[in-house]
Amino acid sequence: MTRPTLTTTAGNPIADNQNSLTAGPRGPVLMQDYQLLEKLAHQNRERIPERVVHAKGWGAFGTLTVTGDISKYTKAKALQPGAQTPMLARFSTVAGELGAADAERDVRGFALKFYTPEGNWDLVGNNTPVFFVRDPYKFPDFIHTQKRHPKTNLRSPTAMWDFWSLSPESLHQVTILFSDRGLPVGVRNMNGYGSHTYSFINEAGERFWVKFHFKTLQGHKHWTNGEATEVVGRTRESTQEDLFTAIERGEFPKWKVQVQVMPELDAEKTSYNPFDLTKVWPHGEYPPIDIGIMELNRNPENYFAEIEQAAFSPSNIVPGISFSPDKMLQARIFSYADAHRYRIGTHYEHLPVNAPKCPVHHYHKDGAMRFFPQVTGNTDAYYEPNSFNGAAEDAKYAEPPLQISGDAERYSHRIGNDDFSQPRALFELFDAGQRQRLFSNLAAAMYGIPQEIADRQIALFTKVHPEYGAGVKAALEHETRAKAAETAQQQKNPAGPVAAE
Ligand code: NDP
Ligand code: HEM
């Protein structure tokens, strides 16, 4: 087989890719070695900023196949019976940087991009149905507690527990994070949730509220903290290996896709705010409806181009699927596209992985990396309105009006919200073993924080369930005694067991 000839980026054939152009065999290097200069310059530009959160990730392509019939709730073409939609999934941890180890206790991102005939629909969820905060004003502060301390450059358990203990709305998510499901062996063995309440709109223009669920068909599998420590010692890339090799072997991971649907006016009747991201909708009240299967069946050819440059945004909706008044969702509608313009560049949506697989017509104009031709239908139509048959609006896509009322005010999101019942319902689902692991996972994470903060957090656990508070208190005391014994042992024998022999 003949090999293609190596070229520069401008297509000039390269005669020697091993040796720099030098004055004499010992150098120095000549300035005119443009091939060397090009190689070094490109290397200097190989990185884009990592995502400010969810930096470490793993992804693959697949298909959403709809088998159920929810056409009475939504007109979205991708959700009609029999529809098959190509899609991309990117999973991630939240707090770790790009090179973080995979087997860490953290929420997993579950970001999906469906390339539908009506544009891209992105569902940017997590492996948990709820979140730590319910007001977006709290999000940057929350994330700062998960990232590194400005002085020590270390992760700070004090900051984490200080924030959580002062934010009782976090209890539900904290309970999930420190339960078995907080450390899945890989992304194949976890559920995904759209988490927010979204809306469906049907052909008749009726609105329903909806929550999305993706139930793993590989079964739930988790690691204990001890097992994860051993895994990280062996490989830092356990999830990447698991997902990539399973797909290469032809073992395509699948998730059962379900929705919970609430008639629009029920939102005024539920005992909880259905737009509060710290709450689930109990299955007993809104039973999950099976709508189909999501399967991942193709690994990316180039990780950087297709996964690192993938840009997901909750603002990407399609006719028949829309937003809700959830304050967190509203903020995310702004935040993601803004992040992509900074992280990737103005025209990020024209990169192949982000480009819709349907016609795109807009009047946005120039800027760095404007590499695509006019997308308005006609080169004379570069403004709107115009007389040159350029793309124009179509009122048939208008959403039904949404009734909103109320005075503009910074309403306290802590007033009138029950932060304890739903974590209690979860705690009551756990058997004795699950509860004990929850206690010891929490104790391991809380060890060493100031007593005042620990007491405040334990008081919150006690309000969820007296056995929850008592269990964490006992586990923390046990952890403290064990660590003290370890320290005493080290002081007696500072050089460790080998030197002692
Ligand atoms: P149900 O008993 O009908 O639902 C319980 C849900 O909890 C199931 O979806 C199950 O997921 C999930 N679950 C089971 N074990 C765990 C675990 N160790 N960690 C996290 N989730 C688990 O009760 P409700 O709908 O009334 O909900 C009760 C509690 O269950 C909620 O307060 C919430 O904490 C939790 N939950 C509820 C969900 C919902 O949408 N209603 C979704 C996920 C959790 P699976 O089907 O995969 O086994
Ligand atoms: C990533 C902001 C809440 C799931 C990101 C990114 C930002 C961000 C800026 C980086 C995007 C990028 O550079 O590509 C916010 C804000 C939130 C919020 C402002 C709240 C107000 C949430 C919630 C969820 C979530 C509630 C899940 C339900 C994700 C996921 C990613 C992500 C999965 C990674 C997407 C990917 O794989 O590229 N978030 N986020 N975020 N966020 Fe959020």
TrEMBL record:
GO cellular component: cytoplasm; periplasmic space
Gene Ontology biological process terms from the UniProt entry: hydrogen peroxide catabolic process; response to hydrogen peroxide
GO MF annotation, one: metal ion binding
Pfam family, one: Catalase-rel
Localization in the cell: Periplasm
Compositional bias (Polar residues): 1-22
InterPro entries: Catalase, Catalase_3, Catalase_clade1/3, Catalase_core, Catalase_haem_BS, Catalase_immune_responsive, Catalase_sf
Source domain of life: Bacteria
Ribonucleoprotein as UniProt keyword: no
Name of the protein: catalase
